[in-house]
Amino acid sequence: MRVLFASSEIDPLAKTGGLADVASSLPKALKKAGIEIFLIMPYYKKFVSKSGANIAPTDYLITVNIDDEKISSRIYKTELHGVEVFLVENDELYDREQLYGTPEGDYPDNWKRFGYFAYAILELSKLLGNIDLIHINDWQTGLVPLLKLRKYPELKDTKTIITIHNLAYQGLFEKEILHKLSIGMEDFTIDGLEYYGKVNFLKAGIVYSDFITTVSPTYAEEIQTPEFGYGLEGILRKRRDYIQGILNGIDYEVWNPSTDKELYKNFSKEDILEGKEANKIKLLEETGLKEPEKPLFGIVSRLAEQKGFDLFPPIIEEIAKRDINLVVLGAGDKVYQEMFINIAKRYENIFVKIGFDPVLAKRIYASSNFFLMPSKYEPCGLGQLIAMRYGTIPVVRETGGLKDTVKDIDEGGYGIVFKEYKPFELLNAIDRAINFYRDKSAFNKAVNYVASLDFSWESSAKEYIKLYERVKHG
């Protein structure tokens, strides 16, 4: 089976979030399982050049009419994990300081940038020939199924699947862009890509794709409700027979405590307790924290409401007074950054670093006893999977992929789970974790257990292959 996997970002070529991780790791696992797979992404030169990848031009040229002008691109290529990656060159559209916008807001021509990218995906499908399925991701590729249906009769046998990584981001634009993208007004309806008078790229993908996946089974159910549907729950319920949640995985070659060069000391399942303790002592030294006998709680996150940080202000003082150490690494909303900076100044058991530091992140995953992820919603979540890979017990809210991957200790599980999205529910979860830590026998057993769980991409890839076959054969 020949699959073209389209994403607006792919790690390590260009990355803003978890989509880039999936677009790198899933195709690698699919290729290993026997799928003939190709990747396509815009050629963001400033980002790609920093990755150190070897880039070469191909003979492929594409030309598309957008906004009454002919836009042409040379297709370049590189390779990741043995998978060919095609890059759509257009410096005016893609060679910018950021992928999607500035701190002031999204680039106003994102409709053009990703409308053109959608056409480029279909043009490359023609050039490659015999593509059985195009797997698109999020709003940036959402126009592909509609354009295929209306503009590319030669691709009528090529199927499309869209994966929704985060329904909150939908790609909304004024209806005037339809003419500029050569899309007829007949599709600007409530059953098409119209959304409260605007054009919705993600809705186009949901309506016109042959199948829809999300990144966890629970999230697939949640997005069909008003609480998590962001206005698209109606159309998603209408297509519920064509929706499946397949859990994301993590790359076990990248996230491997026995070979990870960033750790103070490597460890395996055989010496996990000693290895984690050695890392913990070193991390406390690096961060200036004391008393290694205390439980160490770690946070590696974007500091935003979606990630649960609006729960902290009423209880942060109480958390700081607990007999714990807390290490926080992240950046995001100013209010939460300042909250953590201020509390760290007043309590010597809290260390905060604002920003992203991949080395420190890995050390926190490996050294912590507990990993905090109190998300308001979480389509899948990678942090809890990485933490468990390194033998760290997750403390999470019961939502999305967190619900699918973490089972509470009171229900025969291995993590701490709270249900209601309230500050004192989070505080209670932290207190439960502290008590659990004191029961050394049960705690050590849980550490060993979480480290033995398999959240690698291999099992997820098998699910995708089954779905590909089903969709291909109709």
TrEMBL record:
Matches recorded under SUPFAM superfamilies: UDP-Glycosyltransferase/glycogen phosphorylase
GO biological process, one term: glycogen biosynthetic process
EC supergroup of this enzyme: transferase
Keyword list, A-Z: Glycogen biosynthesis, Glycosyltransferase, Transferase
Annotated metabolic or biological route of this protein: Glycan biosynthesis; glycogen biosynthesis
Glycosyl transferase family domain location: 289-436
Any one GO molecular function term: alpha-1,4-glucan glucosyltransferase (UDP-glucose donor) activity
Protein name, UniProt field: Glycogen synthase
Organism annotation: candidate division WOR-3 bacterium
